[in-house]
């Protein structure tokens, strides 16, 4: 089967058509696949319409705003970030990785700085539902690889995205003393 998760603001550039088309393609091979869409926003009705048009009403659960995101990350086999425009920093990627959830994301903006492709997650070209579906299928079929990826994702967050590293990095840019932590 497989439990997929999208968590974020429901806007047009977050990639709903790409994500939902990929899930529709994947359901031909994995009919029991489910997708939780957690978040809200101005494009929610469009996302729901796309899901219905693609025959995914039974596979998608629109959860709206959630206050227990860690629970959703732990329940998911894979988190998806299918944005079609670059983000300067995808905090939700870090949150998912910190929970030990493998992340598949569009190769845009800072995602390549956050995710080590093939090691701590997977990066796909933006706006390519076919490649997103293939990547998701491969990861769902590769249980041990997915577990190894989840462990690497968690380690990456623990090593690279700590509060101390952030403070030290900002202090370095400003020419101030930092915490003495291990900033790169």
Describe the structure in your own words.
The protein has 184 residues and is an alpha/beta fold. It has helices spanning 16-27, 44-53, 69-75, 91-98, 111-114, 129-141, 143-160, 163-174, and strands at residues 3-7, 34-38, 60-64, 78-81, 103-106, 122-124. Strands 3-2-1-4-5-6 form a six-stranded parallel sheet, sandwiched between helices. Helix 4 links the parallel strand 4 (78-81) and strand 5. Helix 1 (16-27) crosses helix 6. The longest helix has 18 residues, at 143-160. The chain is globular and about 55 Å long. The termini are far apart. The relative contact order is 0.15. The model has no long low-confidence stretch (mean pLDDT 94).
Give the SSE layout.
Blueprint: E1 3-7, H1 16-27, E2 34-38, H2 44-53, E3 60-64, H3 69-75, E4 78-81, H4 91-98, E5 103-106, H5 111-114, E6 122-124, H6 129-141, H7 143-160, H8 163-174
Parallel strand pairs: 1-2, 1-4, 2-3, 4-5, 5-6
Helix pairs in contact: 1-6
């Amino acid at each position: 089967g497989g439990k997929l998760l999208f968590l974020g603001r429901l806007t047009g550039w977050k990639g709903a058509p790409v994500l939902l088309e990929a899930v529709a393609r994947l359901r031909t091979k994995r009919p029991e696949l489910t997708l939780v869409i957690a978040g809200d926003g101005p494009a929610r009705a469009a996302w729901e319409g796309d899901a219905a048009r693609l025959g995914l009403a039974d596979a998608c659960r629109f959860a709206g705003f959630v206050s227990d995101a860690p629970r959703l990350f732990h329940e998911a086999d894979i988190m998806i970030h299918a944005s079609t425009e670059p983000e300067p920093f995808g905090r939700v990627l870090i949150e998912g990785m910190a929970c030990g959830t493998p992340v598949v994301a569009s190769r845009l903006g800072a995602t390549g700085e956050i995710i080590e492709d093939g090691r701590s997650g997977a990066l796909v070209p933006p706006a390519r539902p076919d490649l997103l579906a293939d990547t998701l299928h491969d990861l769902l079929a590769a249980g041990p690889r997915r577990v190894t990826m989840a462990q690497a994702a968690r380690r990456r967050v623990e090593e690279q995205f700590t509060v101390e590293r952030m403070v030290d990095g900002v202090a370095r840019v400003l020419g101030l003393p930092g915490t003495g932590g291990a900033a790169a």
